[in-house]
Amino acid sequence: MPQFKIYAAEVTEFGPVGVIIVTAFNNPGGYPLAESFLLIPDEKTVFSQMLQFDVKSFKDSPVELTEEFMLGEALQRAKINLGLYLQDRRQAGAHPPPPNSPNVLPDTVDLLVRVWIRGTCPHLNEVFKKTEYEPLRDAIRPILNLPIIKIKKL
Question: How far is Cα 54 from Cα 117, in angstroms, rounded to an integer?
């Protein structure tokens, strides 16, 4: 069954989380596709990739070419991009990365709402434009109409 999943990705020890969104579905010809998006908070950094095969199954393989397999591969691609991003930031002396490997935890559409209204992830609209997976676009569309929260010191 086609689907998308959302993950919170630790980008700094303290501060806003990054967002990973992965999709898996078959194109109209029945070939498996996956999408991988990594959104870095407070920056215009979006890593987006489409993964696809020119075959519908893995012949003579112990692994089936399923949507679950494609979701897993898309998540691994996002984790690789996250690791490379954090490595570049560390070498540049920018904000310190998390002390250990970054945590990547399953989350829900609520995370997209939270990062949007906080203004930490304005590039969610880029995912909306790039995804070919209509249910993800349908989930993002109403979020893009939400206002940014105003915060005042008391």
Answer: 40
